[in-house]
Write a structure and sequence with these properties.
By secondary structure, the chain is mostly beta strands. Helix content is about 0%, strand content about 45%. It comes from Micrurus lemniscatus lemniscatus. InterPro entries: Ig_NUP210_13th, NUP210-like, NUP210_Ig15.
Length: about 260
């Protein structure tokens, strides 16, 4: 009590406590109240103590996996599978909340498959999680359908060298993963797009490039020392990006 005023009551005067959930699961809370002087008759029937116990269920807040903000960004004519942290643990229902006089720009089925059409705009979806212990959670998320403005290429893994100095070129003999990200005119990253990625490199004797495990990834292997230029483009939206890829020796013996 009164912790907001930095007042700490003594144990005998502190008859209320706060309970904080630290992790999901079940637990119990037991409270025992004892009299200081049994002869004073403070409790009925001369009882020496009162006992009560409750069960507490701590559960996760409903969230969509892979979505850092409360908005899903999709390109036109694309698909997105809505996955939550309660999939498999609760009963989930989905629906579009747009008014009857407004044509929704997305559809969602009973399995959480979200699809956009050729129309751009903003819609809202509602996700309800019915928990087995009798609690319902509701999550309302905006879905924006917008045109793709540009693409960007990122690289993995991160290189760690002595003294944290940056490398000036790719190490010879390494295998890398390139990820292609799509952005709207505000710079926000798309969660779903209908793009078909094409790529080309001007020196295939220096680098080998191939498709990755997903539609927006490439696998790159450095073969020889030299400078190559990688082009990645999407015909559907008429966008492209060019990346210079120099290759050099990263490890060399120390001569004495």
């Amino acid at each position: 009590k009164f912790s907001e005023a930095s007042l700490q009551l003594s144990v005998e005067n502190n008859f209320a406590v706060d309970v904080y959930g630290k992790g999901k699961g079940k637990t119990g809370l037991k409270v025992v109240v004892k009299v200081l002087d049994p002869s004073a008759g403070q409790f009925s029937y001369m009882a020496k103590e009162l006992i009560d116990e409750i069960q507490i269920q701590v559960f996760e807040k409903l969230v969509i996996l892979g979505i850092e903000v409360e908005q899903i960004l999709m390109s036109t004519n694309s698909f997105f599978k809505v996955q939550t942290n309660r999939d498999g643990a609760a009963s989930l229902t989905y629906r579009v909340l747009d008014s009857q006089d407004k044509v929704p720009v997305v559809e969602i089925d009973e399995s959480g498959h979200l699809s956009s059409h050729s129309q751009i705009g903003l819609s809202t979806i509602e996700i309800i999680s019915q928990e087995s212990f009798g609690i319902n959670q509701t999550l309302v998320v905006a879905v924006k359908v917008a045109p793709i403005s540009y693409l960007r290429i990122s690289m993995n893994p991160i290189f760690h060298i002595q003294n944290h100095e940056p490398l000036m070129a790719l190490p010879l003999g390494i295998t890398l993963s390139l990820t292609i990200h799509f952005h709207d005119n505000y710079g926000d990253t798309f969660h779903s797009q209908n793009s078909m990625i094409h790529f080309a490199i001007n020196r295939d004797d220096f680098l080998q490039v191939g498709k990755g495990t997903s539609n927006n990834t490439l696998v790159l292997r450095t073969m020889n020392v030299g400078l190559s230029l990688l082009k990645v483009w999407d015909v559907e939206h008429n966008i492209a990006d060019y990346v210079p890829l120099p290759v050099q020796h990263a490890i060399s013996p120390e001569l004495t």
